[in-house]
Amino acid sequence: MKILWELFWTFAKMGVMTFGGGYAMLPILQREVVESKRWVTEEEIMDYYAIGQCTPGIIAVNTATFIGQKIRGISGGIVATLGLVFPSVVIISVLAGLITNFSHLVWVQNAFAGIQVCVCVLIFNAVMKLLKKSVVDKRTAAIFAVVLVGSVFLRISPAWFVIAAAVAGIILKNLEVKGK
Hints:
The protein is mostly helical. The chain has helices at residues 2-17, 22-36, 42-54, 59-102, 106-134, 138-153, 158-179.
């Protein structure tokens, strides 16, 4: 029971302190569950990010579910997910009631503009960490370059890029092994 409470409390703290959605939560998830709690390794959290990106839902919520499930099974996954989402539900419910009354105020609009910039930086930092851990050789650099160019110029679902990258990773790794 203690570990379930710890899962809920850890993810609730992340949920209340993080603005900007799933990607902005990634650096905090990294710090809390890899560095502080040591519930998962760097490699595991990278896998959870990748799987979380490929599955329906918010990447941080999916990642919380995976971590909770690893720590305490299905109940751990549910508790970690609820912990992450609960603060947002409360805050959004309160703000939804108030925002229409204050959204016309210039200082509120300016505050949101500042928050948007901050969220961009948080997302950028998460991307840079992911990039450093993911692009480790010529094979992964090639996949990165193709997906980057493709995502900029093509209007197709990100799911196709994920599938293509997985297939490319398998093929390129097999070619690399056969070449040795």
